[in-house]
Design brief:
alpha/beta, Rossmann fold, two-stranded antiparallel ribbon, 9 strands, elongated
Length: 284
C-alpha cells in the first residue's frame, strides 16, 4: 500500500524520530523480518507507517504503539483493518495484553531509550518468539559483543544471558529523514529457552553489576562484597577482569554463589533496572 503524498507530521527531536525514506531499504528490512500470514506483530514506533503497512500486507495483524499523538492520529487514517494504532509510552504499556503467545516484535528504537525497551521486552520473553530492532550501530555492537571486545560490557552480558542476538545489516544515515549523525543497524533477538539455568536472576544481575562497576579490577577485587574469592579461584576466574569473562561463566558463577548462600544474604544490594542509571540491570 503506497504512502499518501500529503504533508506528514514532522520528526520531533524530543522523541529521537528519524523516518525511513528509502524504498529499497524498507523492502530489505521487511524481507529480513519475513512476515507470514499467521504472524501477529507488536511494532514500537511506527512513524509514518513505512514498515507498518508492508508488514500488515503479509501478516495477520499488527499492533503499533507510538508516543507521538500527532503521528498516531495521522497513521490511523492510513491503516487497514488488521492494524491497531495505540498512543502511549511502550515502557508503560500493558505488554501482557499486547503480546499474545507467539507474537513477533519490531521497532526502530531511539538511542536514549533502546536499552530500557529491550529489557522490558525481555521481562516478557515467554510471550514473543523473535524481535527485530533498528538501533544506533554503537548500541548494536555492545549488544552483540563477546568477551575481550572493547565494547563487551554489562549490557552485552545481561541481554545475551536471555536472548540470542544476531546482527542483520547496517543502515546508513541517508536512508532516514532527518538524517541521523550516526550509522544504524538492524538486529534480531530470539529468547533463549535455557534461561531456567539461572538460579537467582537478582543475584546474577548483582554479580554482573559489581563486576563491570569496577572493570579495571580483577574479579577477586571487584566481587569482594560477595565473599567470592575462594570460588573465583576454584573456577579459574580470580585474576580475570570483567570483560574477559564469558556469559556462561557469569551464569555458572552466580549459580554457585546462590547454592552456597542463605536465601536473601547476597542479593540485598541488587539494583532494580527501572532506576539503574545505565538501564542494564535486573531482569526478573
Amino acid at each position: 500500500m503506497p504512502l499518501r503524498k500529503s504533508v506528514r507530521p514532522p520528526a520531533r527531536k524530543r522523541w529521537g524520530q528519524n523516518f525511513l525514506i528509502d524504498p529499497n531499504m524498507i523492502r530489505k528490512i521487511v524481507d529480513t523480518i519475513d512476515p507470514r500470514p499467521d504472524d501477529r506483530f507488536l511494532e514500537i514506533g511506527p512513524g509514518h507507517g513505512e514498515l507498518t503497512l508492508p508488514l500488515a500486507e503479509r501478516a495477520r495483524a499488527v499492533t503499533a504503539v507510538d508516543i507521538d499523538p500527532w503521528l498516531v492520529d495521522d497513521l490511523k487514517k492510513l491503516v487497514p483493518a488488521n492494524v491497531s494504532i495505540i498512543q502511549g509510552d511502550i515502557l508503560d504499556a500493558d505488554l501482557a495484553r499486547l503480546l499474545p503467545a507467539g507474537s513477533r516484535v519490531y521497532g526502530s528504537l531511539p538511542y536514549y531509550i533502546s536499552s530500557p525497551i529491550i529489557f522490558r521486552l525481555l521481562d516478557h520473553r515467554r510471550s514473543w518468539r523473535d524481535a527485530h530492532f533498528i538501533l544506533q550501530k554503537e548500541v548494536g555492537q555492545r549488544l552483540t559483543a563477546g568477551p575481550g571486545s572493547k565494547v563487551y560490557g554489562r549490557l552485552s552480558v545481561m541481554v545475551q544471558a536471555f536472548a540470542r542476538v544476531e546482527p542483520c545489516f547496517d543502515l546508513p544515515p541517508t536512508v532516514f529523514r532527518p538524517e541521523p549523525k550516526v550509522d544504524s543497524t538492524l538486529l534480531s533477538l530470539r529468547p533463549l529457552s535455557e534461561t531456567g539455568t539461572i538460579a537467582d536472576h537478582r543475584l546474577f544481575a548483582q554479580v554482573v553489576r559489581l563486576a563491570f562497576g569496577q572493570r579495571r579490577k580483577k574479579l577477586s577485587n571487584a566481587l569482594k562484597a560477595l565473599d567470592a574469592g575462594e570460588l573465583l579461584a576454584e573456577m579459574g576466574l580470580a585474576d580475570l577482569r570483567a570483560e574477559r569473562v564469558s556469559v556462561p561463566d557469569y551464569i555458572r558463577l552466580a549459580n554457585r554463589l546462590a547454592a552456597h548462600s542463605e536465601p536473601g544474604t547476597l542479593s540485598d544490594s541488587s539494583v532494580n533496572c527501572r532506576t539503574d542509571p545505565d538501564n542494564s540491570g535486573l531482569i526478573e
